[in-house]
Write a structure and sequence with these properties.
The protein has 133 residues and is of the alpha+beta class. The protein contains 3 helices and 8 strands, in the order βαβββαβαβββ. It is globular and about 40 Å long. The structure holds zinc ion (ZN).
């Protein structure tokens, strides 16, 4: 599996309205996209920093994955996403190496990307997303 670069860092926030101006000031760049991903029960906001994006994640449902994360851990880094050629192939390869998958096959994430997650249980506590175009 070839990881070309860190595609984005996912950061859980309580409120996009409050955190977007903060990140725009911190990063010196404007948020270029806000998108709801219904499947994940989140609203996302994206910033470009070089080749890497920052993805802010606001929960739309306290029982959704980001809702639960915020409840347990509060705001902060939620996941690291690596760019790969083929997310489903990368998931299969990860499984064959003994890693635990959250997604057996890739699904559609924000920005039309094919995405899948590895379980933090098998990655030393880091939730890892693999994504491809
Ligand atoms: Zn992500």
């Amino acid at each position: 599996m070839k990881l070309s670069h860190i595609e984005h860092l996912g950061i859980a926030v309580k409120s996009l309205a409050e955190s977007i101006p903060y990140y725009e000031s911190l990063l010196g760049t404007s948020c270029y996209s806000i998108e709801e991903v219904k499947d994940q029960r989140v609203k996302t906001a994206f910033f470009m920093v070089g080749e890497t994006k920052i993805e802010l994640l606001e929960s739309t449902d306290p029982e959704g994955p980001i809702g639960k994360f915020l409840e347990k851990k509060g705001e902060g880094i939620h996941h690291i996403a690596f760019a790969v050629d083929d997310a489903t192939a990368a998931l299969n390869e990860s499984e064959s190496k003994g890693l635990t998958l959250i997604d057996k096959v890739s699904r559609k994430g924000a920005e039309g990307m094919n995405i899948g997650f590895l379980h933090p249980r098998s990655t030393h506590g880091v939730l890892i997303e693999l994504c491809s175009k």
